[in-house]
Design a protein that fits this description.
The complex is a heterodimer of chains A (226) and B (442). Chain A has 226 residues and is of the alpha/beta class. Chain A is 10% helix and 23% strand. Chain A has two helices and eleven strands; from the N terminus they run βαβββββββββαβ. Chain A has an eleven-stranded mixed β-sheet with strand order 1-2-3-4-5-6-7-8-9-11-10, with helices on one face. In chain A, strand 1, helix 1 and strand 2 form a beta-alpha-beta unit. The longest helix of chain A is centred in the C-terminal third of the chain and has 14 residues, at 183-196. In chain B, 34% of the residues lie in helices and 14% in strands. Chain B has 15 helices and 16 strands. In chain B, strands 5-15-14-12-11-8-7-6 form an eight-stranded parallel β-sheet. Chain B starts with 17 loop residues before the first helix and ends in a 16-residue tail after the last helix. The chains are: A alpha/beta (226), B alpha/beta (442). The interface between A and B is large, with 41 and 31 residues.
């Protein structure tokens, strides 16, 4: 276990070392992040990174392969453009968590703020708590699971992403509708909850939302929806 | 109606000319706004409204063909450890694979590389063809994030954060469903055949303070090697440039309203943004007031067609220019060779602007395999290289005439304006006077 204390080591030095691929340490513990931005971003190897404290913007941004676990809260753009690997936050995440993520798994054990999963492109996101407004805005593919409530305009302008919400939905965005929860969805959801380590929640308690596919091609009759 | 049908007594309205009448009729018939490619078609104040004062008694010219006039430029000297070193101050602007065929993107890479300059990706990500054939490739980070990935970020030579473009500042993009081939759909992680909207705002930052943190993240991911460009559509250019500098940009790209687009509403193209001419002067002023002129490099685009346009942009203080529409034309867009086919689809060579439609006879703005196969990327690359060489030679010709041994030594003092408007916008004197409208006397 390699321990790096950001109270004494510059962030640049930390990220430079994390980017070194050959024969480096496989496990890292980062102390005193103190809300620093861009902590452990751009990782590209199968390493485990534990961060002891709160992080600022873009923690684990564009991550590939690595597992990053934040024992605290995370700022804007957590795991933005995630490609693969796993990012876990014990606390809550600010806005745009998992934005434009292409793959991998993001788990937020607290709440996530506005625009969680915006423009998601294949990422799986599991939020133990609730999400704010415009969750999964323009979401393309992937899965957003919300164990708590979802704010206004969930799934606005959604494409093919699948949304599961266990609690209340304050409102659906343009072209987002509730859909049947079939057995294959329950299986998918159960698997995701298990992978995320979320316990005490049953897949059957969720409702499923997705695209009505009415705005995929411009039609003048839909002008009021734009 | 052709002009041949005119006879005395037929008086066309200035307010309701034939184009206006045709558009009202089209709108009432189709019920949707006009979407097209190309850039602004209205007459705008431009570099044509400026002239160079060549050397004579009070200035010394340089001998053409004998005395050197250098053209090299280095972009990204502020923070990047690997700035771009280009042989000429003209780059190829960002244009997407999707909007353009893979052959067109490859041709840009071939042509730009042959003359030692850069080309730029676009919405939808980086194709193998353009990476392989581009010695220097700028990778765009756009609001849609289509195809964005850290591998391409790391194998790019520079990164361009696109905030906006001159044809549609404040607007996102669109790629209509009939241009979404299997390959384009896969690169963008969206179903085939649907209209693909590109967002107008980035998903994970809002405003200049966030942008500063975003730039920092991109530098950390790429270990501070790559120059980071910020591209803005010309509107509140003075403030936008200062904020981009504050956010940490190495290079700022300002795209005037004449800048082209593959698909945007006509009303947007013609009515939003400011022309390239005042935008250039405002951007330079913003940099100078921060003492960042030449430290943060400035690239100007939007209506650059000739070496005269290049030279005038440089004289006003730009470090380089980018070409988009002109590069497409150099590649074969609007070629008379295809006039008959343009007419079959309701246009004509010299007028074709339906780049959104995907039926381009020249094989450039299309994803149709048969059409795009018409464009030979090797021949296209040669045309691009030829055109870039002509732009460079013309720029050198004008610079030597002004006595400059490097094109960057051109300066506003070398220029006068033909119109009051251009004099005010460029802050150079009206020809034959020492009057600069809007400049306060001491």
């Amino acid at each position: 276990m390699e321990v790096v204390d950001l109270a004494s080591i510059p962030l640049r030095e930390l990220n430079r070392r994390l980017h070194e691929r050959a024969d480096g340490p496989r496990s890292w513990r980062i102390l005193n992040p103190n809300g620093a931005h861009a902590v452990a971003c751009g990782l590209d190897t199968e390493i485990d990174v534990e961060i002891q404290g709160h992080v600022g913007y873009y923690c684990a941004g564009m991550n590939k392969l690595a597992t990053v676990h934040v024992h605290g809260n995370a700022g804007t753009g957590l795991a933005e453009n995630l490609m693969s690997g796993t990012v876990i936050v014990d606390g809550s995440a600010s806005q745009s968590a998992g934005a434009s993520g292409h793959g991998g798994l993001l788990v937020v054990h607290g709440d996530a703020s506005a625009r969680c999963g915006i423009s998601m492109k294949g990422i799986d996101i599991v939020v133990r708590g609730s999400v704010g407004h415009l969750g999964a805005f323009m979401a393309q593919t992937g899965t957003l699971v919300v164990c708590g409530d979802a704010g206004e305009a969930l799934g606005d302008s959604i494409y093919e992403a699948r949304l599961y919400v266990r609690g209340e939905v304050a409102g659906l965005g343009a072209d987002c509708v509730e859909k049947d929860l079939r057995d294959d969805h329950i299986a998918e959801l159960s698997d995701l909850l298990a992978r995320a380590g979320v316990e005490g929640v049953e897949a059957r308690e969720f409702r499923r939302y997705g695209s009505a596919r009415q705005l995929y091609n411009f039609k003048i009759d839909n002008a009021a929806a734009y | 109606m052709s002009n041949g049908a005119w006879h005395p007594g037929l008086r066309e309205s200035y307010l309701y000319d034939r184009n206006v009448i045709a558009e009202i009729q089209r709108a009432s018939r189709e019920g949707i706004y006009d979407i097209r490619g190309f850039g602004a078609k209205r007459r705008l104040p431009h570099f044509d409204d400026l002239l160079f004062l060549g050397a004579s008694v009070s200035r010394y010219p340089l001998e053409g063909y004998r005395e050197r006039c250098d053209t090299d430029v280095v972009l990204g000297t502020r923070f990047a450890t690997k700035p771009l070193e280009l042989k000429i101050p003209v780059t190829i602007a960002g244009m997407s694979f999707g909007a353009l065929s893979a052959q067109a993107k490859e041709a840009f890479g071939r042509g730009a590389s042959e003359v030692g300059t850069a080309t730029t990706t676009g919405d939808g990500g980086m194709t193998e063809e353009e990476r392989t054939h581009s010695t220097t490739l700028v990778y765009q980070v756009l609001p849609s994030r289509y195809g964005l990935n850290p591998d391409d970020l790391r194998r790019a030579d520079a990164i361009e954060i696109v905030v906006g473009q001159g044809a549609k500042p404040g607007g996102g993009g669109m790629l209509l469903g009939h241009k979404i081939s299997d390959r384009v759909a896969a690169m963008r992680a969206l179903p085939k055949g649907i209209d693909q909207r590109s967002a107008c705002r980035h998903p994970d930052w809002t405003g200049p303070d966030d942008l500063e943190i975003k730039i920092h993240e991109l530098r950390e991911i790429t270990d501070w090697e790559k120059p980071i460009f910020v591209k803005i559509g010309a509107t509140r250019t003075y403030y936008d440039v200062q904020l981009a500098v504050k956010a940490g940009a190495d290079v700022i790209v300002v795209d005037g309203m004449q800048g082209g687009t593959a698909a945007t509403q006509d009303v947007f193209i013609e009515h939003v943004g400011i022309p390239t001419l005042p935008a250039t002067r405002l951007a330079v002023q913003a940099l100078q007031e921060l003492d960042m002129h030449r430290k943060v490099q400035l690239i100007i685009s939007g209506g650059i067609r000739t070496g005269a346009d290049v030279a005038k942009a440089l004289a006003l203080g730009a470090d380089a220019v980018s070409i988009g529409t002109a590069a497409l034309i150099a590649l074969g867009d609007n070629s008379p060779e295809y006039d008959e086919e343009y007419r079959k689809i309701g246009s004509a060579s010299g007028f074709y602007d339906d780049w959104q439609a995907g039926r381009d006879p020249a094989g450039i703005s299309t994803q149709d395999d048969k059409l795009s196969a018409r464009l030979d990327p090797v021949l296209g690359g040669r045309r691009i290289a030829n055109y870039l060489r002509v732009l460079t030679l013309e720029t050198q010709t004008l610079a030597r005439a002004c006595g400059k041994s490097h094109v960057h030594n051109l300066e506003p003092e070398d220029l006068v304006a033909l119109t009051v408007e251009a004099a005010a916008m460029a802050r150079v004197p009206l020809a034959g006077t020492d009057w600069i409208p809007g400049r306060h006397s001491a």
